[in-house]
User: Fold this.
Amino acid sequence: MNDVYNEKMQAAFYEEAEEILLELETTLMELEKNPQNMEVINQVFRALHTLKGSGSMFGFDGIAAFAHEIESVFDFVRNDKLPVTSFLIDITLAARDSISRMLAGDEDSDELIKQNEEIIKKLKVLAGKVKSPEVLLSESAPKKAVEKETPSENVQSLSIFRIRFKPGAEVFLHGTNPLNLLDELKEMGDCHITAHPQDIPKFENMNPEYCYVSWDIILSTDKGINAIKDIFIFVEDESEIKIEIIEDEIELIDEGASKKLGEILIERGVIDESTLKNFLIRQEPIGKMLTKAGLADKTEIDSALAEQSQIKKVKESREKLQKKSSIRVGSDKLDNLVNIVGELVTVQAGFSQKALDNNNIEFQSLAEELERITSTLRDLSMSLRMVPIGTTFSRFKRLIRDLSQQLGKKIELVTEGGETQLDATIIEHLSEPLVHLIRNSIDHGIEKPGKREKAGKSPTGTIYLSAIHSGAYVLIQVRDDGAGLDSGELLDKAVKNGIIPSGSIPTEKEIFKLIFAPGFSTAKEVTGVSGRGVGMDVVKRTIEELGGTIEIVSKRGNGTLITLKIPLTLAIIRGLLVRIGNEHYIIPLASVEECIEIQMTDDDRGRDTSQFNVRGDLIPYLNLRKIFSINGQTSDIDHIVIINSENRKTGLLVDEVIGEQQTVVKNLGIVYKDVEGISGATILGDGTVALILDTLKLVKSSELIGEDIQ
Amino acid sequence: MSSNTEELKKLTLKGRFGIGNAQTIYDQVRVSLKTSNYLNIYLSEISEIDLSFLQILYSLLATAFRKGKEMSVFVDNPVVIWDIIVNAGFESHFSVNVDPDGANFQIEGNFR
Assistant:
């Protein structure tokens, strides 16, 4: 019992740790761009802290100890005792990779142990460079006030208030201690207090019984403005009190970016818009610049930063709460659910058919209701398997960072549509093709900074990665603003390598597609990154196996755009139902180009394969009746479904094209899984089984590929 | 509250540091300042402290800083003083560090 429990807990740790490592990678790269961003520093620290804590809790002591070493260094960073440098980011990324390998079971590898020792050594060097910390004696050292956690149960109704409180000079003499009022505010929620002591006079001029201090208080609370006013009720006549709502609960629901420091300072009247604009054009932190210029004192900036941080904190708490309302479910359980719902869809279709056949109105009404519920359930269960593609996108930031450094290029990644959802299985399979495409863009697409400048471009190249829904498909685009493809060079190379015959005059689109031919590479030299001609053909095959297509557009000097059109899910596909004899088959609609009727001779029908003329083009076809050895009466009129496989048109000879069908894909099971040309099966409404054709393999197994078809 | 001014350069203040004693503390410090350009103030056995003293402390340290006077303030129990610094939102204006000789804690103002 305990072992089972421990295993489950450890599995949960693996999952959580992987997520944290992924987040850590992204956050570190963000930190590299914004080394001063305290929020990002805190995110890194929290990730390391969680890894350490969870690792230790679940018995991964090695990981916990290693994470502790990195966390210690980031503690210095967090306390402004160590700057964020590229060196620190490099080591931390390396440490992150090490933890990933430790998680994968590589912990005892001598090489990894040695590597980790090196990392720890470097971390210790960094820690040694820490400015002599002004350490207070730990036992009796003054304790910083413990920050109150925002009460999570109330986070949904939190508002953030900015309170300016300047008590009257004689407030002490009237028996009021302003600090008691501040204490009351603290009890209302999460509170950040910044004192403004600027009005305290020179020592010789001061009246020690007068109050000179004013405060900026940022309070996030679920209490209303009147509750705040009540606190100041006895001092309101002699004090300056200004209470403003800076973020109410509605604004907090908006998960957009938090207010910028400049915006807050304008709101507070510290600076005006034109001052902000003048300073923003300089590449320095705005707070630092304004302080330097004497336009805002440090206290004003600290207070505005506290406001910014408070807003972020409340938003994060809200997001955390929202995350807490989800539960982790194993993908196998979801697969089972989708399978069972698939069966339900089949049963329901059979039921509806029977209801129709029996012509019983009551029965038909029940069937309609069942159909509606089943359809909702099917959509819901499919949606459970959908995950945002953004997680995959974020992995490429690291790839681009490392490769561009390696190749001496400057490359920025811009992503869009990360929230677009796709079936988890598809996302899993997409990762590798996308890596290939991005590596190619980095290596062959984006030019080196000098070359780009000569061409009048920014020295930094950009790779755009986007995802967008388009009907039952998702369009994933990889675009770069690099050199683009040279169609002349591609054609020469293809002829030279015998990929296309000499004298061919293909269109530009056809030429571009040559890069997906096996063994084809445009690289003038083979690098560690790409250039061996291996990869792009794999990309195409993988995309086609997923039921998708790939398109390429390029303009010399301007860049290349590659579009992957991927079905939303593999569990339900759009198929074309066809009949051969008494058997039914499904042809994935993604590969179907057109259907034509044709009258064949008996001789033609006797062949496995042959060719026929479609609008002047000779197109080969496969006689599925012969290939699948189906007996029985043939139709008077034959039907050919023209499919596009690996950019070659092929006909599939069938007896009847019944129509489009939403197809719930079922596995064939171990015994039939290797049958050539069949990828799965589905159950039709009448309970009969229809096999789903694997068009790519079907065409290949018929040995048509390689022939000079067109 | 009691005071000890045996040495001109050293002023020890003990006990209550609230509004009730603010004027007395202020006067004692002022007298000491008049007689010396170099002053060490020791705060010990603090039983009460409030914002009025924090203001005196701030003004004292800020004035000394601006005038270039050698002035140090020490405390035997830093927890009490740090608590009020935090509660009053003065964290960025003061720091409390270990005295180099290790016997006390030094309160410093951050005026740069």
